[in-house]
Design goal:
Number of domains: 1
Organism: Chloropsis hardwickii
Main location: nucleus
Number of strands: 8
Number of helices: 4
Subcellular location: Nucleus
Domain Grh/CP2 DB: 1-183
Largest sheet: 5 strands, antiparallel
Structural class: alpha+beta
Helix content: 10-25%
Distance between the termini: 31 Å
Strand order of the largest sheet: 4-5-2-7-8
Strand content: 25-35%
Order of helices and strands: EEHHEEEEEEHH
Radius of gyration: 18 Å
Pfam families: CP2 (PF04516)
């Protein structure tokens, strides 16, 4: 339920995609599973979640905190999807809320639960044309506050045990994450 800010920026190079100049862009955000195994059963996983939490959504837009979004929508049949329009020439920030935690999609085994990683997938679409630019962003895992603290501590301890050569394979931790387009 915590709100996370995503700033929408027009980072086109000069002359790139002129068909969207002066037009609104429609962005569709989804929270999807990172694990390929769970991607194959996504529909069943979401239906099970819906059955356990009737009337709730997995993903919402925090409209009062968001700036520059137009016509925000949440399709009642797609619990993990939201969409809105925005003007690439204006400052736009959308605040999203995820209403589930990573451990809701894992089997409860021996007391400790690893939790499944999610990804935020975004598809900006020009309403006037069917052009779609799918992007997938870094993974996110959501835990209850005490569980999150415990998970971060365990992850730090695991990282400290790795050799310097193994540590080079990982990105260092930062207070904020800057998302860049991947081609």
């Amino acid at each position: 339920g915590q709100s996370y800010e995503i700033r929408m920026l027009d980072n086109r190079k000069l002359g790139e995609l002129p068909e969207i100049n002066g037009k609104l862009v429609k962005s569709i955000f989804r929270v999807v599973f990172h694990d390929r195994r769970l991607q194959y059963t996504e529909h069943q996983q979401l239906e099970g979640w819906r059955w356990n939490r009737p009337g709730d959504r997995i993903l919402d837009i925090d409209i009062p905190m968001s700036v520059g979004i137009i016509d925000p929508r949440a399709n009642p049949t797609q619990l993990n999807t939201v969409e809105f329009l925005w003007d690439p020439s204006k400052r736009t920030s959308v605040f999203i809320q995820v209403h589930c935690i990573s451990t809701e999609f894992t089997l409860r085994k021996h007391g400790g639960e690893k939790g499944v990683p999610f990804r935020r997938a975004e598809s900006p679409v020009s309403p006037e044309s069917p052009v779609c630019f799918p992007r997938t962003c870094p993974g996110l895992s959501l835990f209850q506050p005490k569980g999150a603290d415990r998970k971060q501590k365990t992850d730090r301890e695991k990282m400290e045990k790795r050799t310097p050569h193994e540590k080079e394979k990982y990105q260092p931790s930062y207070e904020t994450t800057i998302l860049t387009e991947v081609s």
